[in-house]
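RECORD CONTENTS
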Amino acid sequence: MEHSLSIDTSVGKEEIYLQVLNQLRALVQGEEDLIANLANSCALLKEAFNWWWVGFYLVKNQELVLGPFQGPVACTRIAYGRGVCGSAWQQQKTIIVPNVHDFPGHIACSSASLSEIVVPFFGSNQEVIGVLDVDSEHLNYFDEIDAKYLEAIVAFF
């Protein structure tokens, strides 16, 4: 099925997220393949917000393994509890990092990334099955609005 995006980026952040949620609902409706849905979600989020990097890491064999993403080349594997992604997995909660240089153990996949938000998502057994990782080349870029809506987005999976 062919889809085209229609996001008005001239409105505020919260309004953009509401449009993204509507578009995502249409994109994943009837599609059961997780990787396909994650890939389209990355493309949708990248187009709507033009973040430096947006992607998913999936839990495989007790580590996070790179999944679908949009942006520069990324770290392939991340250990449990390591960096922002591994910490969000371990703590089972969203982590907002205003300045990645201040986060103990931050994994620098790209020196251009200055702030980050990582949102875990859960399988049917309520265990973390992956994380959504978003990086910005601007400091203090993410806030509770981003957390709220990115948590709603990962709830689709």
